[in-house]
Amino acid sequence: MLFAFFLVCISAAGASARIGVVITVGPPPIPVYEQPICPGDGYLWTPGYWAWGDDFDDYYWVPGTWVLAPEPGFLWTPGYWGWGGDSFTFYDGYWGPQIGFYGGINYGFGYFGVGFVGGRWDNGHFFYNRAVANINVTDIHNVYETRVTNITENRVSYNGGNGGISARPTPEEEAAAHDRHMGPVAAQTQHMQEARSNPQQRASMNQGKPPIAATSRPGEFTGGGVSRATEAGGRYAPAANRGGSEARPGAANAPAHVRDLPPAERPALPNTGDAKLDKKLQKQQQKQYAQQQKEREKLEKQQDKEDKKAARQNNDAARQQTEQRHQQQTQQLQQRHQQQSMEMQQRMAAPRGGGEQRR
User: How far apart are CA 343 and CA 329, in angstroms?
Assistant: First the structure.
């Protein structure tokens, strides 16, 4: 009964981890990149941003892209990260007739922290500010030019908290959030999912300099319309407990290497009262233990080899990337083996047919 109660607690913790992830480390700075040329009339720019993947505990970059407005007169208010006192929360972007508050974040390309100066609607047509937007005037003629002085070099990507932007919404920006508006269109959602599924877009892999920083159209992650980040917006060194959830105690002290894991304990011998069944379960236990040991040894050798290679390269960024990958591998291995052992214990504790059910 105690073991069953423990399994229920573990299951509840897993559900909590999927539902309420507490992110305590801010996203990397906004990377430096060029805006791809606008693909056609009616496309509006939606800036890139750092999103969070709670299934792999890391920020990933969603490339900026040109998107067709859902209806004439609508503008895009970007989403932003804000500090809420004990964690970071992402406030989703939306389409609406007015630009709302987006944290004071300087996303560039007309989104310099307040409002939008990259273009405007006029009689159902969108006119582009060629001083800000990358427009081919041979194909698009509804343009104008208004010079904008963007003097800030601040590439911080979140509002509030330690080191964050201190901007607060104006009454007009607050009103925009309550005006008629709609969330991201399907193309934007698919674009985000594409970025999420690409490991190279994750901060731990690209060190804040994503290989796909912007695209000419949503979801087009290859070809001439892709813009790479030319440099990271600043140094990003995630803490050891980057973004872990409350339902995963000990994540702050996660082992960085397989050799840092404690020695695996041999499972206790089964004692169900049925000698034949005990013998069968013991064989299963021994097989599982041997397989787990084999997996640990294999991963440890691989990590040792990669450590030596990174040391020879004498590249701090590459070494840090290798260390972060090893920490993730080690944590995944540990969690998988713990889950396997609990499932084995659960089979041992399950009531067996032909005997009296324990209460």
Answer: 21
